[in-house]
Amino acid sequence: MGKEIERKFLVTSSAWRSLVEADIRIRQFYVAAQPGRTVRVRISDGLSAKLTLKFGDRARERDEFEYPIPLHEAEELMAFAIGRVIEKTRHHVRHRGYLYEVDVFGGELSGLVVAELETPEHVPDEMLPGWLGREVTGESRFYNASLALGGIPEIAA
């Protein structure tokens, strides 16, 4: 079991684009979601897949279990998706030694850009990149499960 410790931010400018080190095309969907627990399948670049179980409802920290699964099984599981299949491109961007994952959503969620910072240590605001906007850590409407079941939160539309 791992701990997922992350902060989420809306992205307010495109200044991060020149800093991209890598990108991954992601399709992900949920087969179960309720407050405090989700079961997700993620397909990366159409080449590999993982099943992820997340537990907990604390804003920055949740228990996470992740397992590789055969790609063909992930594609079959898509028939059991609840809500929409999320399409996004995840960009890896470094700033002051920290790795930010900037997700640019496509499909019905086009226009939404969210950055995640996974680190167990507190990063002071003055160390954060200027292209980050409002922090939305703990706002469940910005969690991917909520985006799959609902849509773009009004403030981000």
Can you tell me about this structure?
- Strand 7 (98-105) and strand 8 form a beta hairpin.
- The radius of gyration is 15 Å and the shape is globular.
- Strands 1-5-4-3-2-6-7-8 form an eight-stranded antiparallel β-barrel.
- The protein contains two helices and nine strands.
- By secondary structure, the chain is mainly beta.
- The protein has helices at residues 71-77, 144-149; strands at residues 2-11, 20-34, 37-44, 48-55, 61-69, 82-95, 98-105, 113-118, 132-135.
Number of helices: 2
Average predicted confidence as pLDDT: 92
Largest sheet: 8 strands, antiparallel, barrel
The proportion of residues in beta strands is: over 45%
Our Rg estimate from Cα atoms comes to 15 Å
Task: Tally the beta strands.
Answer: 9
* Termini Cα gap: 35 Å
Question: What is the topology, as strand order, of the major beta sheet?
Answer: 1-5-4-3-2-6-7-8
Q: Could you list the spans in which at least 5 consecutive residues all have pLDDT below 50?
A: none
Can you lay out the helices and strands and say which pair or pack?
Layout: E1 2-11, E2 20-34, E3 37-44, E4 48-55, E5 61-69, H1 71-77, E6 82-95, E7 98-105, E8 113-118, E9 132-135, H2 144-149
Antiparallel strand pairs: 1-5, 1-8, 1-9, 2-3, 2-6, 3-4, 4-5, 6-7, 7-8
